[in-house]
Amino acid sequence: MIRISQVRVIDEEGNQLGVMPTPKALQLAQERGFDLVEVAPMASPPVTRLLDYGQFKYEQARKEKEARRHQRSVEFKEVRLRVKIGKGDFDTKVKRAIRFLDDGDRVKVTVQFRGREVSHAYIGRDLLDRFAQQVAEHGSVDRAPVLEGRSMSMVMTSTGKPVVQDEKPAAPQKDKKQAAPRPAEPSVAKEEPEASPATSTGG
Question: What confidence score (pLDDT) does residue 13 get?
Fold first, then answer.
């Protein structure tokens, strides 16, 4: 609810309309089929804009979702192999690594040796090279295979952008009855029966 007697108005196309009484600004918004939304409440006088409040909230939610997507932290995942791994298990491990890489995570692929298998470390290297070839379209080798005790491992990083499942925001709807907004949200003028500085959204 806008309680200031005068506001600075920006129209739906971004043009400055200047400072005017709040009731007049509300009437202008109603005539053009828009809401009067307070976009800079701390300014003197506060800055308002003519826009569809439902569409405004929809765009805000979309931008916040996009920002969260870019803030996603990269995780370190591990896939473990055996020297005598079967083709089915190998393919399953490949698919798991691809899923991790498509999510933008780094993947450590480890071959574990048993008993005397460690004396044939080249077998583990060949296995890791084959693994890297299988996921080449999704990730690249960031650290070449290294033998550490009874295991050999390499690190792979994603070569593409993280694949994020779209969470469709609610379809934009124009608010017919706008409650008093929280301090962090823009205010929408409401129409009162009597002319007063505090007015509300027109239909």
Answer: 83
